[in-house]
Amino acid sequence: MSTPAIPRRLPRAVREQQMLDAAVRVFSRRGYHAASMDEIAEQAGISKPMVYAYLGAKEELFVACLHREGTRLMEAVARIVEPDLPVDEQLWRGLRAFFAFVGAHRDGWSVLYRQARGQEPFAAEVAAMRGRLVEIVAGLLGRAVEAVGHRAARPADLTAMAYALVGVAESLADWVVEHTDEDPEVTATRMMNFVWLGADDLLRGRSWRPVS
Amino acid sequence: MSTPAIPRRLPRAVREQQMLDAAVRVFSRRGYHAASMDEIAEQAGISKPMVYAYLGAKEELFVACLHREGTRLMEAVARIVEPDLPVDEQLWRGLRAFFAFVGAHRDGWSVLYRQARGQEPFAAEVAAMRGRLVEIVAGLLGRAVEAVGHRAARPADLTAMAYALVGVAESLADWVVEHTDEDPEVTATRMMNFVWLGADDLLRGRSWRPVS
Questions:
Q1: Nearest-Cα residue of chain B relative to residue A182
Q2: Candidate from B116, B157, B168 with C-beta closest to A118
Q3: pLDDT of residue A1
Q4: Beta carbons of B163 and A180 less than 8 Å apart
Q5: What is the mean pLDDT of chain B?
């Protein structure tokens, strides 16, 4: 039997994507510290010196993975949102895109995001991405408040609510990655049911109070 | 000037708490990898060999910190919940205790939890704690469903909702640690307003639907 022919000279961009695919997979399975450049090179079908030459040492390679996955995620969400729609529809579409992305890139989510978040020097990078996301969501909520005309919301309230929304989405993403293959549309609707009814009531002035 | 007298022979339990206090502070500021046993010993006012003798090497010391902070948090929440109260009141009291704990132990939260979560071999430990918390919350929600008598909820729905609730609490804890000194009661009420109205509607059969 003959080995199938492997093209020897791929464009640089293609090679880089292959290396990043392999790196995301290996970081995902082994964790950052236990991941070896040997395994990444082997998985990418590329020599180790070439990985170093293209994308640098382990730390730089991890940052490159983090950037690629983060940018892909933000683009997937941004592409789908149409500013002319009602705010809840925008949110639902953004969430549907988000859960679809997470379901299709489980390695990217569970490791790059979860691992990077707790480890310097990557944590600051993830915190910055998350900060941008919180601002976008706070902006959406501000427009929702204007739309129902209830009252001028204080910026701190909008920020806290945006943190809460981002927290729900992240936690449900963990749930998706660990427990389910359900349609992203179902997960997005699940989340809207959970948060939007409450947010909407709240924006209209209905509120919960402790009895004691 | 004379140096103030320092008691030389403290009980072992007191010494250990001093070491753990110092370790949580140093891990919090430096991160796990950059934290040095020298600095921890210095902050605890105890010799480095004694830190090793009492609590082991850095990895064991970090696990000891994680256990102490995690157990304290769970106890603070469990102490306050009274099973005879309505479910929303139990949830609110649990949240109030949770945000009070996080506000008073910012180092413990932002680092032990956030750092530990993304790093093997600690991540599995944190995942197990979080899993227990999700189960407790899913149990509470199950009782809430029975209380309103709406319908038999599917276990997967309760689990997903529990993930969502835990995600909101975690994200608001980050918000508290990074942005605010507000009263834990205010933060707990903020969260109830955000999630309970929606959860309650949902449990009673009202739901959100996309228009498109």
A1: B156
A2: B116
A3: 46
A4: no
A5: 82
With contact defined as beta carbons under 8 Å apart, do B109 and B102 qualify? yes
Residue A49's pLDDT band, with cuts at 50, 70 and 90, is very high
What is the mean pLDDT of the segment spanning A179-185? 86
Q: Tell me whether residues B170 and A166 touch, CB distance under 8 A.
A: no
CB pairs under 8 A between A and B: 159
Task: Indicate the Cα dihedral angle A24, A29, A35, A39, nearest 10°.
Answer: -80
Domains of chain B by start residue, with CATH: 1-56 (1.10.10.60), 66-203 (1.10.357.10)
Q: A114 to chain B: which residues are within 8 Å by CB?
A: 117-118, 123
Contact A123 B117 (CB under 8 A): no
C-alpha closest to that of A86 among A167, A192, A205: A192
Average pLDDT on B93-118 reads: 83
**Which chain A residue is nearest to residue B180, measuring alpha carbons?**
A156
Question: Least CB-CB distance to A196: which of B119, B167, B198?
Answer: B198
* Residue partners of A120: CB distance under 8 A and separation at least 6: B31, B33, B34
Contacts of B201 by beta carbon, 8 Å cutoff, 6+ apart:
A197, A198, A201, B207
With beta carbons under 8 A apart, name residues in chain A contacting B192: 208, 210
Q: How far apart are CA B186 and CA B175, in angstroms?
A: 13
pLDDT of residue B1: 45
Residue with tokens 């995620």: A73
**Is the model's pLDDT at A5 over the cut of 60?**
no
pLDDT of residue A90: 86
Cis? peptide before B210, omega within 30° of 0: no
What pLDDT does A145 receive? Answer: 73
